[in-house]
Description:
2 helices; disordered N terminus; 10 strands; 14% helix; single chain
Amino acid sequence: MRQLKFGVFSLLTAVFCLSSCIEHEVIPAPTSTVKLDCNFTGTINNTDVQFTKNVNGYYCYQSKAKLLLPPPQLSSATYYAAMISDQTPVMVQIGMGSVLWDQSTTTDPTLSIFNNFFLTNLSPSYSNLGAAGFEVTYRDINGNIWKSDALSPNAQNVAFSQVKQASDALGDYSKFVCDFNCYVYHLDTTDPANPVLQSLKFENAKFQGWFKR
């Protein structure tokens, strides 16, 4: 009888030790990810064009240009969003600036300043390099760069809508839909002695995307 009790005790001890040594899998809590959609449609030089995310390699690429100045001067940032592809050089980019802030405590504008800038600039003026407004950049199949001009003699307009702020673990975003019409320009220097300023017309252009803080 003692041997039976000893055997049961040993078995229970072994089971306890085995269960205590098993490492339980820790499943991390799910993280929310902002849904970011992007596409471009429009007529460029009388040709209908459409760039869609994950079609022909297109995706939305964000960048920014910052000018950091010591206080009491205000620093500035211009934000860019581009429909770009690894399969073709053809690209459309829009830029918007400048967001102003005091960089004595942070090297980027606060989320509040970032959000308010885009919410209060729904119909900006055109600006070269997006320094004080809106800019369009186009790269054609030959790799030539065309840009809008703030002093263009042709009619041009732009309107942002559906501007919404969103954030996730990867960053803060200003989502938007941007409608615009304009001309973009390229200086052809094939003949250096006679450079020619060329133009292309963007009509009914619509860019859905986002700027990243």
